Amino acid sequence: MILPIYTYGHPVLRKPTENISSDYPELPSLIKNMFDTMYHADGIGLAAPQIGLAIRLLVIDLAPLKEDDPDLGTFKVVMINPTMLEMSEEEEEASEGCLSIPGISEKVKRSEWIKIKYLDEQFNEHTEEFEGFKARVVQHEYDHLEGSLFTDHINPLRRQLIKSRLTNIVKGKATCDYKIKTA
Questions:
Q1: pTM of the predicted structure, to 2 decimals
Q2: What is the 8-class DSSP label of residue 50?
Q3: Which positions of the chain have pLDDT values less than 50?
Q4: Which domains occur in the chain, in start order?
Q5: Which residues lie below 8 Å from residue 92, measured CB to CB, with a gap of 6+?
Q6: CA distance 107 to 180
Q7: To bridge 181 with a disulfide, which of 4, 50, 70, 158 should be the other Cys (CB 3.0-4.6 Å)?
Q8: Catalytic site residues?
């Protein structure tokens, strides 16, 4: 089922998220719906707050990028209750966009590598290190679980320059090819 994506200004995107247990209602269906919603919106990552749920769950599938980088094409993951363990001090800057902030992309500095602990959809625990683009996408989606958006990481001058565009999203004036739910 394709779900609406909650956009910039909606309170759920800033709400603290809670861990879930293996008996979370209809979890396999929720995970499938998150992937379906993400694919429908041409995204590569989606966190539960983006569909209105303040829980610690995110999905990522980098398969659409396999032509640019075959290594990315095999990266598909479900992370339940993730915890960031380490982040490098070294950062890389690259352009980011977000399904919850349609039509806006900005350069964001992110740690070059991260170490994260999470549960998969069978509730098996994993501790993994990611670098480069994989680390960037995981950090972006993880931020959603922390009530943070990529616009929080851009310099104040750039944020001021896009303020009217963000205000338009809050007012429901965003246009995109997928279902959205505004504040």
A1: 0.96
A2: G
A3: none
A4: 5-181 (3.90.45.10)
A5: 109, 110, 112, 132, 136
A6: 24
A7: 4
A8: 141
